């Protein structure tokens, strides 16, 4: 077949600018052929090169005493957890594929992040996810489509994770019209490894053989990376061939075979998974990291269908494939293992020393590109940033004309919103218990998982993913800072101290200066949050072009933090445990309604400034809660987030195994009852303790500079709240009814 | 006592059951690869959960042709203890060691949660450490756990005390609401007629350590240990 002639139209169709094309010609010192054009277009897409965001990402702190592999060095960062063990974890998006084909899009997202982790030599031990959809309530626009997307994505995640046997232990899901037509599917994976067995993705040693292992290459996922690097439009359905098809069974075999192979360090030089940009990315990146060259022959690549062109083979994103560089003379080690697992394994080339990525087809050279310049010298852009013109107006909130809703009805309404409702409908489709490590199941502030570090010895990790995108949309830097604070707060409530963070930056088209401003500010906020908690960013993902014809999504810089709990007996639940326990509100009482769920759901207002955040105060809260957890004084701890104080109390009740009620007396100064009960002021938590120690605990917290008020007692089957002050009020809810509203809501929307 | 945990391509609860046997119960355990033909002298054989062969064609339908399955069948005939959990249950049905078949949950969704399971009777090598009617809290995690057999087979299973576990509510009542997958007559676990082969959908290995929230599954393993050497019960 004759390659098409390269025309300005063809260049534009590959998403390359005139300047970028000139740069390609400068690198090659000639015109590229069609295959080479395709190779450059995927490697220089935002998805692979971060060309629009990399300058911003440099603001992140990436070092620390526990960092064994830094962000960006390899497929995922590695953090030391002690006793010779490390963890590799990362979050990645599969937003665009999930928008056009939710089941396969989400499934292959899980497959991709799993490979990123086991490529490092780690055994994946748990998964989480952060999802965003348009509203699913029947009276909302596009509700049927959004429900279809939600169902498809959840089934896709379940299919892949359940089959491969890695538990999905937690996550978050929020709904907002800005995600109509552009859902977000961010998947997180964590693996454990011996620090002495970290695998690297470098091709070194001229003459060493290059092996292709795993599934055969087909025509699926052609140029998926480039597809992910443009806006979603009405025509995106035509991009379905850019979505990959996953096979978790093959991935399971590949995982086990790879882990078996890694037990032979003498035989392995480097490993790299074939994710975005498949064979292209894995060959040029390993060569670039190894300061070497690589030569492969496509005729040797296991293929699913006949007649694939070099362009198609190089750009295919078929799943469940890896590249392994083996030490010459050890070829038999790898072929034997892959025979055992009945997986394709083919010698497709050699490491060279001339620095070129040379691709042949039946011996004829079809692409010849300097590997380093292709992999590492993509153009970098400093995009224009402009504060959105309407931001001031949206931050303006006049409460004087706002009526106060009756808390009696409001609580049930809020608990049954898709954002707050129990996500049981979702997580019971995920196997969240396989690997016998899940100590705290989904539905708590953070997941707690014991991970094996040797035979019958364990470390206890807590992990959470978070982002309140409404806050980010209203004040990006503060919103991103709150995302970090809330995620770390979730961890602190379980007794964990944070180790490191991964992020997934989901934003609109960066060529729009207002979108880029949001990205820039959010990165500043995340970086500041990481510095405050002294945790590094271990890697992550940038997903731009998240917009449909209706406009960009709310900027969503999702963060995932992993923490460690020193001792199994410190693991603390979120919900009420024992009748009679004293309930203490920890943190400064506040009345901030800006950006709150209450304003959005009850008054239809998406405005105001997000709540203030004082990082010193936040850190003191975490340290105090952890300290008293370690002393054995805290029986449950739950942070205050969306919905504020009253929702947090209700969650402690409806989430408890025995549906324990509480009697609450709030003698807190306030100007508005709705702001007291539903305001989302930061740095607060509800803890419970033995009644005899409550007053001592309150004074000890105060002594640490952490405000604390004993507000009530656990017990009964009602939640009773008395509010003191000039006009005292009293409210009573049956916990069983609140539970029904909260637990049954998603089932009802999705029935 | 020596145990064998069979590993098929796609097994994924093999390490879990191995861990419980070895580290919680201090047993001798071997992984047995499906291409092997020997069980290494094991007295009890576990066919673990997972998605053997990706559940392609039908769950358990391909695994039954693995070389090791002839050895498992021989061991079953010889009266050795055979325990199939989840996908292992499906494989034992497909292999003809247990009657009936497991089909898609009526909800059509995969379901993972801890559910109440009632012990039907303690007169078996798998339940002797439990009491009649005892309600256990055991995790389930399956998309195809809906047990189906013809009416005569179902009657016979109950008549011959082959039904060891049923889904119930916390009070031990077999209500429709407490049936997580639509299983006929709420069946969660059955033995063969001789009583030495058990298949069950719930995962006892996930409920064998306090830190994981339930130790109710441990009794199943300790029952097997307590009955080592007991001759195969002759059906009445």
Can you tell me about this structure?
Chain A is of the alpha+beta class. Chain A has a domain at 573-751: PurM-like C-terminal domain (Phosphoribosyl-aminoimidazole Synthetase, Chain A, domain 2), CATH 3.90.650. Chain A is 35% helix and 24% strand. Chain A has 26 helices and 28 strands. In chain A, strands 8-10-7-11-9-12-13 form a 7-stranded mixed beta sheet. In chain A, strands 23-25-22-26-24-27-28 form a 7-stranded mixed beta sheet, sandwiched between helices. In chain A, strands 1-2-3-6-4-5 form a 6-stranded mixed beta sheet. In chain A, α19 packs parallel to α20. The longest helix of chain A has 22 residues, at 143-164. The radius of gyration of chain A is 26 Å and the shape is globular. The mean pLDDT of chain A is 95. Chain B has 236 residues and is an alpha/beta fold. Chain B has one domain: Class I glutamine amidotransferase (GATase) domain (Rossmann fold, 3-Layer(aba) Sandwich), CATH 3.40.50.880. Chain B is 20% helix and 25% strand. Chain B is built from 5 helices and 11 strands; from the N terminus they run βαββαβαββββαβββα. In chain B, the strands form 2 sheets. In chain B, strands 2-1-3-4-11-10-9-6-7 form a 9-stranded mixed beta sheet, with helices on both faces. Chain B has a two-stranded antiparallel sheet with strand order 5-8. The longest helix of chain B has 11 residues, at 14-24. The radius of gyration of chain B is 16 Å and the shape is globular. Mean pLDDT of chain B is 94; it is low at 232-236.
């Amino acid at each position: 077949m004759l390659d098409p002639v390269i025309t300005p139209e063809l260049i534009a169709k590959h998403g390359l600018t005139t300047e970028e094309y000139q740069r390609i010609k400068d690198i090659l010192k000639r015109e590229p052929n069609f295959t080479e054009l395709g190779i450059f277009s995927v490697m220089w897409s935002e998805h692979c090169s971060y060309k629009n965001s990399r300058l911003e990402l440099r603001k992140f702190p990436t070092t620390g005493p526990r960092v064994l592999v830094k962000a960006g060095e390899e497929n995922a960062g590695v953090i030391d957890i002690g006793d010779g063990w490390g963890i590799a974890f990362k979050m990645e998006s599969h937003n665009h594929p999930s928008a056009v084909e939710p089941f396969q899009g989400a499934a292959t997202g899980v497959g991709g992040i799993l490979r990123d982790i086991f490529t490092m030599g780690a055994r994946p031990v748990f998964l989480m996810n952060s999802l965003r959809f348009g509203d699913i309530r029947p009276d909302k626009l596009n509700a049927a489509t959004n429900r279809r997307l939600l169902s498809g994505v959840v089934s896709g995640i379940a299919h892949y994770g359940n089959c491969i046997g890695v538990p999905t232990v937690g996550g978050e899901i929020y709904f907002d019209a800005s995600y109509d037509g552009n859902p977000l599917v961010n998947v997180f994976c964590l693996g454990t490894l011996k620090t002495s067995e970290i695998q690297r993705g470098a091709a070194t040693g001229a003459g060493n053989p290059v092996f292709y292992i795993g599934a055969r290459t087909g025509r699926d996922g052609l140029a998926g990376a480039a597809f992910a690097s443009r806006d979603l439009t009405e025509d995106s359905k035509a991009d379905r061939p850019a979505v990959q098809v996953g096979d978790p069974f093959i991935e399971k075999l590949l995982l086990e075979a790879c882990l078996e192979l890694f037990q032979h360090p003498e035989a392995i030089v480097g490993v790299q998974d074939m994710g975005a940009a498949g064979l292209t990315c894995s060959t040029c990146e390993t060569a670039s990291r190894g300061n070497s060259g690589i030569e492969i022959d496509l005729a040797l690549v296991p293929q699913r269908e006949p007649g694939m062109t070099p362009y198609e083979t190089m750009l295919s994103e078929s799943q469940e494939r890896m590249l392994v560089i083996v030490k010459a003379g050890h070829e038999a080690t790898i072929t034997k293992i892959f025979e055992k697992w009945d997986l394709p394994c083919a010698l497709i080339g050699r490491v060279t020393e001339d620095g070129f990525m040379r691709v042949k087809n039946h011996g004829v050279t079809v692409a010849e590109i300097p590997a380093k310049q292709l992999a590492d010298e993509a153009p970098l852009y400093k995009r224009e940033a402009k504060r959105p013109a309407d931001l001031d107006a949206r931050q303006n909130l006049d409460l004087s004309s706002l009526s106060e809703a009756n808390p009696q009805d409001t609580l049930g309404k809020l608990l049954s919103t898709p954002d707050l409702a129990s996500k049981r409908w979702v997580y019971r489709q995920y196997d969240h218990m396989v690997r016998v490590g899940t100590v705290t199941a989904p539905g708590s502030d953070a997941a707690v998982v014991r991970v094996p570090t040797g035979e019958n010895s364990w470390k206890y990790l807590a992990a959470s993913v978070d982002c309140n995108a409404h806050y980010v949309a209203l004040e990006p830097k503060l919103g991103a800072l709150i995302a970090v604070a809330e995620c770390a707060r979730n961890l602190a409530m379980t007794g964990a101290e944070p180790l490191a963070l991964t992020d997934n930056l989901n934003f609109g088209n960066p060529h729009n200066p207002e979108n880029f401003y949001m990205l820039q500010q959010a990165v500043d906020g995340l970086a500041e949050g990481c510095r405050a908690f002294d945790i590094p960013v271990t890697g992550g993902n940038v997903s731009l072009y998240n917009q449909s014809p209706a406009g960009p999504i709310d900027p969503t810089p999702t963060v995932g933090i992993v923490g460690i709990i020193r001792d199994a007996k410190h693991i603390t639940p979120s919900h009420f445990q024992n009748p009679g326990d004293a309930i203490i509100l920890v943190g400064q009482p506040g009345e901030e309604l800006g950006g709150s769920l209450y304003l959005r759901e009850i008054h239809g207002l998406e405005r105001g400034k997000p709540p203030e955040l004082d990082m010193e105060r936040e850190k003191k809260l975490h340290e105090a809660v952890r300290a008293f957890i370690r002393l054995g004084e805290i029986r449950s701890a739950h942070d205050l987030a969306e919905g504020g104080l009253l929702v947090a109390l209700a969650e402690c009740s409806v989430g408890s195994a025995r549906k324990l009620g509480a009697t609450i007396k709030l003698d807190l100064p306030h100007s508005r009852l709705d702001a007291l009960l539903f305001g989302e002021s930061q740095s607060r938590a509800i803890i419970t303790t033995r009644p005899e120690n409550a007053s001592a605990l309150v004074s000890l917290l105060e002594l640490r500079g952490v405000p604390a008020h004993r507000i009530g007692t656990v017990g009964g089957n009602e939640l009773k709240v008395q509010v003191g002050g000039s006009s005292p009020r009293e409210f009573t809810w049956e916990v069983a009814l609140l539970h029904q509203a909260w637990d049954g809501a998603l089932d009802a929307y999705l029935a | 006592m020596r145990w064998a945990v069979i590993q098929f391509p796609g097994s994924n609860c093999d390490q879990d059951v191995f861990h419980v046997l070895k580290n919680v119960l201090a047993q001798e355990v071997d992984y047995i690869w499906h291409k092997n033909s020997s069980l290494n002298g094991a007295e009890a054989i576990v066919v673990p959960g997972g998605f053997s062969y990706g559940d392609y064609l039908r769950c358990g339908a391909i695994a039954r042709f693995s070389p090791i399955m002839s050895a498992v069948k021989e061991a079953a005939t010889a009266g050795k203890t055979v325990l199939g959990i989840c996908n292992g249950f499906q494989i034992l049905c497909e292999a003809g060691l247990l009657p009936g078949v497991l089909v898609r949950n009526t909800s059509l969704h995969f379901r993972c949660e801890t559910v109440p399971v009632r012990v039907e009777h303690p007169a078996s090598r798998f339940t002797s450490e439990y009491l009649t009617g005892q309600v256990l809290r055991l995790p389930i995690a399956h998309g195809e756990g809906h047990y189906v057999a013809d009416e005569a087979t179902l009657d016979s299973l109950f008549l011959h005390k082959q039904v060891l576990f049923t889904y119930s509510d916390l009070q031990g009542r077999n209500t429709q609401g407490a049936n997580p997958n639509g299983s006929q007559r709420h069946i969660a676990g059955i033995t063969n007629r001789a009583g030495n082969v058990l298949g069950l959908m719930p995962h006892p290995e996930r409920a064998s350590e306090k830190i994981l929230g339930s130790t109710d599954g441990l009794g199943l393993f300790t029952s097997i240990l307590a009955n080592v050497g007991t001759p195969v019960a002759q059906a009445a």
